[in-house]
């Protein structure tokens, strides 16, 4: 019996390995089983190993009893696997939409490369970036690895984007200030609608027309798409407008005749101010009232014309406010010397764009209008230098001329004619052919300034000279007596018997000892050209013209006389102003 048990034990040990080292390649020796076991799928065991090793992540194996790692195959492109010891290719998971994998054996989903912001992909198991599609124009996406076009956000209202693949909200370009758009996903700036005329916009990216702001009353804008309030132009002086969102200057209403308005951008008719006594406004839309000229007066507010003094009487200053200021005048018909100075104040006369020839024609036309109205020959109208059939034009547009040889009308008659709308219409009609670009209505405003006539002896003006060692130049033009020399300037009567007939004193004889400001200087574009012509005609040779020596002898005395005359003038004008102020508490415009 004991022998039998011993034999059985020996047989059992003979059937089992003696230890783990005796397991062949492809098999493992689990401690619990204490025997060699064939390695399963997804594992391998090389020669001498007692363990079945799992295939690494990103690989798989369907071989049992594998003896080498080479039997672990990598997951194909576009897939990944984090599983160790994967028993088959089904363990490799596809890269999701929005990602792609170009390498074998990826071990996690993050190893799949994401499509960049501004792109998306709906393809799974993609192997290259070519599957990443750009978000369409008018949209944007800031997401990486976007898996559908739903990740592309629409550009909001008030913006647009023409480029596909926008990756930021700021890639949606805002509509400029003064425009708006209520369209989502806009792809073109043409979707930005301009604010209408009469409106303006102050912010970019406006999403509706409600962002367009009306130009305020007193202003207007005729251009669509205004991006700033400064594009709303103010109504000009002499006008007003209570309309909001005005799209044309025609909405600016002119103040009525007899009123004035000196400021731009006015929104109420109450800003049209009445002309004060001694002033008048002939036309609508006046920026300032004109003084009643000499020989007239007005005691009323809102005057559109001034009353002319009765025959034989005259006012000695402008802006007279009472009939009692008309006092008896000197000479037959108040024209002691048979000549009168005519001054025409213009408003924005654009003579600078006239050629020299055009300017001469214009001046000749005005002279003809004066001659017709004063009932004298055209040659009897002269400029300040004595040139016939023309007028002097100062830099500020003031027109001055003398009408000589007046024998029929009285000064009061001349005033009635020259201050009338008929004369202004004649000026307009005479100017239309020469002031190109001006309409009849605009010329009406040009000649809406004051017209003045006063009895005055004509004395031609001479240019003064400044002599240096090398040159002789004309610098200014002052009113001076023509020396008693041959070829004296025209306009001085030979039969005048005044004591100062040979004096070079720069004075002008006036019935009322008045001196008009317009005569202080003949400077101006037309006067300067006349001076140049006189200079060219005055002499020849290498030295100064012969008349300069005669004039030089009179310079010292003339300067003293000019100083005295200026002081007298200033004193006289001060006394006139004080007298006018005492007549009424009302101010003048």
Characterize the structure shown.
- This protein is α+β, with helices and mostly antiparallel strands and 589 residues long.
- It is built from seven helices and 39 strands.
- Strands 33, 34, 35, 36 and 37 form a five-stranded antiparallel β-sheet that branches. A two-stranded antiparallel sheet has the order 1-2. Strands 3-4 form a two-stranded antiparallel ribbon.
- The N and C termini lie far apart (155 Å).
- Mean pLDDT is 78; it is low at 1-18 and 465-589.
List the helices and strands and how they pair.
Blueprint: H1 2-15, E1 27-28, E2 37-38, E3 43-44, E4 53-54, E5 59-60, E6 73-74, E7 79-80, E8 93-94, E9 99-100, E10 113-114, E11 119-120, E12 133-134, E13 139-140, E14 153-154, E15 159-160, E16 173-174, E17 179-180, E18 193-194, E19 199-200, E20 213-214, E21 219-220, E22 233-234, E23 239-240, E24 253-254, E25 259-260, E26 273-274, E27 279-280, E28 290-291, E29 296-297, E30 307-308, E31 313-314, E32 327-328, E33 340-344, H2 356-374, E34 381-382, E35 392-393, E36 399-403, H3 411-418, H4 421-431, H5 440-446, E37 451-455, E38 462-467, E39 472-478, H6 525-537, H7 546-583
Antiparallel strand pairs: 1-2, 3-4, 5-6, 7-8, 9-10, 11-12, 13-14, 15-16, 17-18, 19-20, 21-22, 23-24, 25-26, 27-28, 29-30, 31-32, 33-36, 33-37, 34-36, 35-36, 38-39
Helix pairs in contact: 2-4, 4-5
């Amino acid at each position: 019996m004991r022998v039998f048990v011993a034999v059985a034990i020996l047989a059992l040990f003979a059937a089992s390995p003696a230890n783990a080292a005796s397991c062949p390649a492809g098999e493992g020796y689990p401690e619990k089983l204490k025997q060699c076991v064939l390695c399963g799928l997804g594992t391998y065991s090389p020669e001498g190993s007692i363990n079945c090793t799992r295939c690494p992540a990103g690989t798989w194996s369907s071989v049992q009893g594998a003896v080498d790692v080479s039997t672990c195959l990598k997951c194909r492109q576009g897939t990944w696997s984090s599983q160790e010891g994967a028993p088959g290719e089904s363990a490799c998971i596809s890269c999701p939409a929005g990602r792609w994998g170009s390498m074998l054996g990826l071990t996690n989903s993050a190893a799949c490369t994401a499509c960049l912001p501004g792109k998306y992909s709906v393809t799974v198991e993609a192997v290259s970036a070519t599957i990443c599609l750009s978000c369409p124009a008018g949209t944007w996406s800031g997401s990486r690895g976007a898996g559908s076009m739903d990740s592309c956000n629409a550009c909001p209202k008030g913006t647009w984007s023409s480029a596909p693949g926008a990756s930021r909200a700021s890639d949606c370009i805002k509509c400029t200030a003064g425009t708006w758009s209520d369209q989502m996903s806009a792809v073109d700036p043409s979707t930005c609608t301009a604010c209408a005329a009469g409106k303006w916009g102050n912010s970019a990216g406006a999403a509706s027309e409600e962002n367009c702001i009306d130009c305020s009353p007193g202003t207007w804008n005729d251009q669509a798409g205004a991006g700033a309030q400064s594009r709303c132009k103010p109504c000009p002086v002499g006008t007003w407008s209570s309309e909001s969102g005005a799209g044309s200057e025609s909405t600016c209403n002119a103040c009525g005749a007899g009123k004035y308005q000196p400021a731009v951008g006015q929104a109420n008719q109450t800003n049209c101010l009445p002309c004060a006594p001694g002033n008048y406004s002939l036309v609508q839309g006046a920026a300032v009232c004109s003084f009643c000229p000499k020989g007239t007066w007005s005691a009323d507010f809102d005057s559109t014309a001034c009353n002319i003094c009765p025959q034989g009487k005259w006012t000695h200053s402008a802006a007279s406010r009472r009939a009692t200021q008309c006092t008896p005048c000197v000479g037959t018909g108040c024209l002691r010397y048979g000549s009168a100075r005519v001054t025409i104040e213009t408003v924005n006369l654009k003579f600078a764009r006239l050629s020299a020839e055009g300017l001469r024609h214009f001046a000749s036309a005005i002279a003809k209008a004066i001659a017709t109205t004063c009932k004298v020959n055209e040659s009897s109208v002269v400029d300040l230098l004595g040139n016939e059939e023309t007028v002097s034009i100062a830099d500020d547009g003031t027109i001055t001329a003398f009408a000589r040889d007046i024998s029929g009308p009285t000064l009061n008659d001349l005033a009635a004619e020259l201050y009338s709308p008929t004369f202004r219409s004649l000026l307009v009609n005479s100017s239309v052919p020469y002031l190109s670009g001006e309409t009849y209505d605009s010329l009406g405003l040009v000649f809406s300034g004051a017209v003045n006539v006063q009895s005055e002896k004509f004395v031609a003006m001479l240019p003064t000279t400044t002599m240096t060692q090398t040159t002789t130049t004309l610098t200014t033009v002052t009113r001076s007596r023509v020396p008693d020399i041959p070829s004296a300037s025209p306009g001085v009567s030979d039969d005048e018997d005044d004591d100062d007939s040979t004096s070079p004193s720069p004075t002008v004889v006036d019935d009322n000892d008045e001196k008009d400001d317009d005569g202080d200087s003949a400077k101006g574009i037309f006067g300067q050209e006349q001076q140049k012509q006189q200079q060219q005609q005055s002499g020849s040779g290498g030295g100064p013209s012969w008349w300069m020596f005669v004039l030089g002898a009179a310079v010292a005395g003339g300067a003293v006389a000019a100083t005295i005359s200026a002081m007298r003038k200033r004193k006289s004008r001060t006394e006139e102003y004080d007298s006018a102020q005492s007549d009424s508490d009302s101010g003048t415009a």
